[in-house]
Amino acid sequence: MIKFLPLGGAGDIGASCFYLNLGDSGIILDCGMHPQKTGYNALPKLDLIKNLPVDNILISHAHQDHIGALPYLVQQHPYIKIISTPQTRALAELTLHNSVSILSEQLNGEDKLKTYTHEEIDLLIRTIDYKAYGESFVIGNSFHQSWNPVKAVFYDAGHILGSAGILLEYMGKKIFYTGDINLEDQILIPGAGLPPGPVDILILETTYGATDSSTILSWREEAVRLAASINKIINTGGSILIPVFSLGKMQEILATIWNLMLDGKITTVDIYTGGIAEKISRVYDYNRYTVNRVDPEFEIKSIPQKDLYEVDRIESFFKNPCIVLAPSGMMIEGTASYNLARHWLKQSKSAIFTVGYMEENTPGFIYANAAKGDKIKLPGTETFEEVKCTIEQFRFSAHSRREELLGIVKKLRPEIVCLIHGDLPAIDWIGASILKNFKGIKVHQAEIGKEIYL
């Protein structure tokens, strides 16, 4: 009997964490924080497994919504074995250290959780075992007399550096967890690889399940559209703010813009980046020959960049046209992109370009859906502000389109599909489409705390 218990990331995007009970072995897939929640509420429901066997955790990639709660899991289960790809391990060292002070501030006064330190993160990172893509390894509870081994393999998920889909094999049953998966090439990271089918159980992300794919151009087609808009702003003396996630989106958008400059498709101006993204870019460069890359010869450090955090006066961004890539991607209150955007709003010649998915309850969603002349009210403010700058939405997706998700189902031919990592409209569309197009497949909508027996 296989038991699947979602602890987070079900009916929502954030705090991805899924428990699998395979006989005597307890295996967790990811353990993330919810980016739109704070403190204890941002964690997966780890209390649900406090009396269950917990032996291993496999991490699909190093985004905070998939790895951010790992230190709290280790507090509760100090002997758990952690396994990821080598690249995810290297990135986790950066992202988990970066989150220490943020989470300590959020948890101030909460007695439910013990905050962790940089020293504890160093120790945690040293305990992470790592396996390369395609390398078969055995996990599970080898101390139990009736132990049946669980075989595992990581497959390149095409989402960010080191991201992995995870294939598990237990007593003849194959389970594939997609994690965040992208089948299309980006500028740096090529599209995902899949295991040979069939599998018995597919745990499938649904991020873009409710999104009409005709609104999502290919990366290179969207780059052409971006170039036209950049030129329009720069050629009239304006500057452009682009909110990005420090891991993944920053590197891909930076490379996209630089390639457009090299090709003469946009005017060459100063590009501002900074913060943890610079260290992450070094990891991308270091691993350019160790994993699949669209162009392994290309190095991010070859791109001329200025540090946005070394700019003393906001007005400096508007003296000469420039492009600023600032975290966070969803413009969460208190981040660089949030703070800068409030100044950009007042600049009639300048623009804010959003380049990815925005949760509805984030400041980024408010910005992305505003237009020049609108009045918007942001979290943490008391008054409405007029939008004087240009605002445009672009979609540079690191997730598969909904038809591609159905293509995964077609290729892997599972008997059972569990739908995760999407809002309810996304899950409904994918679920209904599977039932319509693939006869005999049983579909489950994952719900936090609801056990599914597979």
Describe it:
- The N and C termini lie close together (7 Å).
- It is globular, with a radius of gyration of 22 Å.
- It folds into two domains: 2-211 and 398-453, Metallo-beta-lactamase, Chain A, CATH 3.60.15; 217-393, Rossmann fold (3-Layer(aba) Sandwich).
- Helices cover 28% and strands 20% of the residues.
- It is built from twelve helices and 22 strands.
- With 454 residues, it is of the alpha/beta class.
- The strands form four sheets. The protein has a seven-stranded mixed beta sheet. The chain has a seven-stranded mixed beta sheet with strand order 7-8-9-10-11-20-21, covered by helices on one side. A six-stranded parallel beta sheet has the order 14-13-15-12-16-19, sandwiched between helices.
- The mean pLDDT is 93.
Topology record:
Elements (H helix, E strand, L loop, with lengths): L1 E7 L8 E6 L2 E5 L26 E3 L5 H4 L2 H7 L4 E4 L1 H21 L11 H10 E3 L6 E3 L10 E7 L7 E7 L2 E5 L23 E5 L13 H16 L5 E4 L5 H14 L7 E4 L2 H11 L19 E2 L8 H4 L2 E5 L9 H9 L6 E4 L8 H6 L6 E2 L8 E2 L3 E4 L8 H11 L3 E5 L3 H14 L4 E4 L6 E2 L1
Parallel strand pairs: 3-4, 4-5, 5-6, 10-11, 11-20, 12-15, 12-16, 13-14, 13-15, 16-19, 20-21
Antiparallel strand pairs: 1-2, 1-22, 2-3, 7-8, 8-9, 9-10, 17-18
Helix pairs in contact: 3-4, 3-7
